[in-house]
Design goal:
Blueprint: E1 3-11, E2 18-20, E3 27-29, E4 33-40, E5 45-50, H1 55-69, H2 80-94, H3 97-115, H4 119-122, E6 130-135, H5 142-155, E7 159-163, H6 168-179, E8 187-191, H7 198-210, E9 216-217, H8 225-234, E10 239-241, H9 249-257, E11 262-263, H10 272-285, E12 289-290, H11 298-309, E13 316-320, E14 351-352, H12 366-372
Parallel strand pairs: 6-7, 6-13, 7-8, 8-9, 9-10, 10-11, 11-12
Antiparallel strand pairs: 1-4, 2-3, 4-5, 6-14
């Protein structure tokens, strides 16, 4: 089998931009994306997906994928690791990790389709149940978030993650207000998107520890490994991160320093399925938790589910609830171009399984796909 052609398509967002409030300033996160289609002479087409948070940036991402694709045409797409390492030699100089991630996902999709098996089986098989927590990236007051927490708890989500970084006192208020009101079996996680310095992060973390918050995500600069380690060792609340790192190599530095309790590789950026699976292997060796960062479009989310299912240190994965006015928060609404959207669904009780069809297990509705194209 040989790769004959690589196509890219820039897709507009099917949902409103998510709100990421923080001290650094409110930021909107668009769930637009770039889909890569890798065609082969055997008639198998593989799909992968990444996104750079805005349509404008995604056009640059598509160009990066087009540039990398010249290195893989004519190769056997089933030689995923060999191709990954060849592309990495180019990517580590250019910084095009989103492009590498999308191509890698598409190669695994081909490999699974050729074998007639879902990707998680090729990764070693499902290791246990994976539950979900709900990221709720909406600009709401603490009191409003309590009401939505009840809605998400009723579905079966284990926890709700909200934005932090509003300032020490406001974050403390939000933690206290929500934790005093939600059911005992429903957790809260907070994500500061690297907006705090070490002193203020510790002040928020002390309150988060007191209220047994599930984790404090990216409290300080993700490059400050020593600062993360000092914070992790000085507070009880677990410190999480790694979504902004590429690929798996820096994970070893974090693990040796004891910098994080929870590792959150983002498949759209870490180097796809290959990169995330290697993070999972390293995390297992140090007995830390893996909770993939998975706020993004549908094909990439399906890839994240396969990695989660096959990873022994993973029992929880992110699920973005991007609309507060839907009847069932377990529906994945960020991918209307997926024909079998029921394959990505949070069951009542909070469990989620990877798609069971060969490859990534998602099929494309070509008509809807073309409707969302903006390139």
């Amino acid at each position: 089998m040989q790769i004959t052609d690589v196509e890219t398509a820039v897709l507009g967002s099917a949902v409103d931009a998510a709100s990421l409030p923080a001290q650094v300033g409110a930021r909107d996160l668009e769930i637009s994306s770039v889909v890569v289609r890798i065609h082969t002479d055997d008639g198998i087409t593989g799909y992968g997906e990444s996104f750079y948070r805005s349509e404008e940036n995604n056009r640059f991402l598509a160009e990066s994928i087009d540039s990398l694709s010249r290195h893989i045409e004519g190769k056997d797409p089933r030689h995923v690791k060999d191709i990954w390492h060849e592309l990495y030699l180019h990517v580590k100089r250019a910084g095009a990790y989103g492009a590498l991630s999308a191509i890698d996902e598409a190669l695994w999709d081909i490999k699974g389709k050729d074998a007639g098996k879902p990707v998680y089986q090729l990764l070693g098989g499902q290791t246990g149940e994976v539950q979900t927590y709900a990221t709720f990236p909406a600009d709401k007051t603490a009191e409003e978030l309590v009401e939505y927490a009840d809605w998400l708890h009723e579905k079966g989500f284990e926890a709700m993650k909200i934005g932090a970084g509003f300032g020490v006192e406001e974050d403390r208020h939000r933690i206290r207000t929500i934790m005093d009101a939600v059911p005992d079996d429903f957790g809260l996680a907070i994500d500061a998107n690297t907006s705090y310095d070490a002193t203020d992060a510790r002040r928020v973390a002390e309150t988060a520890s007191e209220y047994e918050v599930e984790w404090f995500e990216e409290p300080i600069a993700h490059t400050d490994i020593q600062g993360q380690a000092e914070l992790t060792q000085s507070v009880d609340v677990p410190i999480s991160g790694y979504q902004t790192h590429t690929p798996h190599y820096p994970a070893l530095d974090h693990l040796k320093a004891g910098a994080l309790d929870i590792y959150q590789p983002s498949l759209d950026y870490v180097g796809g399925i290959t990169g995330a699976s290697r993070v999972a292997t390293l995390v297992e060796a140090f007995n830390k938790q893996l909770v993939p960062h998975a706020l993004g479009p549908a094909i990439n989310y399906a890839a994240s589910l396969h990695v989660a299912a096959a990873s022994r240190q993973c029992t929880l994965i992110e699920f973005a609830v991007l609309d507060d006015d839907i009847e069932d928060p377990g529906e994945y609404i960020a991918g209307p171009y997926i024909d079998n959207r029921e394959a990505i669904y949070v069951q009542d009780g909070g469990r989620i399984d990877p798609p069971s069809e060969p490859g990534l297990g998602v099929t494309i509705d070509e008509d809807v796909f073309e409707e969302y194209r903006v390139d």
